[in-house]
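Q: Can I see a sequence and its folded structure?
A: Here is a first one.
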Amino acid sequence: MHNNLNIWRHLTAAPHRSLFLAGALQGVLTLVWWIYDLTGRYAVFGTLSIWSIAPTWAHAFLMIYAFFPFFIFGFLFTTYPNWMNGEKITARAYMTTCLLMAAGVALFYTGLVHSKWIAILGVLAMLAGFGNAFGVLQRILIGASGQDRRHAIVTSTALFMGCLGIAAYFLWLLTDIHFLLEFSRHAGIWFFLMPILLTVSHRMIPFFSSRVLDNYVLVRPYWILWVMLACSAAHGFLQLLEMTQYMWAVDLPLALCALYLSIKWGFLRSFQVSLLAVLHISFAWLGLSMLLYGSQSLILMLTDSNMSILGVAPLHALAIGYFASMVLGMASRVTIGHSGRPLEMDRFTWQLFIGFQATAIVRILPEIIPVFAQYTATLYLLAGLIWLSCFFLWAVRYIPIYWRPRVDGKPG
């Protein structure tokens, strides 16, 4: 009993502990479920599974709103008070979000098997968790005075869009109105995840680089952030309007901005420090993915075709290459730094991260190189298995840190 109390005390000692733990477990669970579904669908193992929600749309929801947010909230609950010199967020506030979202995920999985109505309750619980997080962070933002609030304003706005995205998914489950599903999907990527990851990258990558690289010139112009955010929003609206042939006009400028920042932030120099390199590698995927999006859109316009030339390769280059890799890199850094350990990435974690890059490459290969198209099902499964293996091993390495005290004896 005493040991259980100690574990709970450590888990609730800092925002990232419980939320990263839940995110790590969900990262494993959602891939186990997805691989199970794919093996049945492609007749590799078992039979085709019947779920209460179409598996493609369940997978999209689980990844956008029930995997990344655990890490995003763990990070923002930690950084908002630091960014704006505000009071630390109470355990009650961040544990409320964590428990509501964890309960929502559990109900969603249960509902997939048994009843759509249970899944709907799960979505509602996750929306309540999001709403609580938005309210807590908004109070810190409003209470900040004399601080640079630009990054926080963007992330708070994006969190609000995330709430709208979950609400749209909830209403889609109730009404079956397809536009609500489309809004939930595209808002989740272009109005929620992209703005948050872009803003955190803009603030943290040059800052972390300046701390460890000699004679580093910190480049962080705000105008380029505003351009990139505007391009992301425009992309989302064009997708909602099904005007994909015009997306190149915003995708290619976004790609150029991202590639420019990769160079100015010192992509090649970052390899001197592996804990920094993982962030730079992740960010480089943004430029590449937007080049793929822009190329696909341009081809659609020039050929006057409705066929998607590269399929969902640009999406997975973005979601796995940029979003997931950045989350893994940031979570590793926060976990190491806030556990009192030296800010160094061990060889094992570095190898897992490199393996994670293979997930993105294997997933997009059959759609960008025609010769691999005949192995599509095999490569999809292989990509899922690589992700699962790397993320499972990452979870095994890092999860125990969350319920143990800091190694330096400090609180938190």
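Q: Show me another, different protein.
A: A second, unrelated one:
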Amino acid sequence: MTTIAYKDGVIAYDSRQTRGGAIVSDDCLKCQIVDGVSFFLSGAVCDEKALIAAYFGTPSPVPVECSGYAVHDGKLLMVGHDDKTGVWKQELDPTNPDAIGSGSAYALAAMDMGASAEDAVRAAMKRDIYTGGKVRTVQIARDH
């Protein structure tokens, strides 16, 4: 999987891509921009296009095994998919740190102790075998 963390207007994420128990790449870009919406997704890479399509109104006929963040018009959203309702979107409080992915518990604990989103991903990299490579960051607009 991955670790994607949000704090103080910054999304940070690692660059490791895995398949099963193997590292496929430590230089994977995990930010996809489609029609002005930035997606930061975790889970099955093969399902990312289906989740993005569902986000824009094209339902998936099969289960989608990924979720993540979307930044749409400056708002931070958690996005996912389930069998009953299809795509779901939940606006997140921009003042509240958040993390998703296999290293999310490590990242959240690090942010609780004062770490930035970037440092939280680095903390997750120490313990989560599915988080690694480079740490990339994206500044998003924040409403105050």
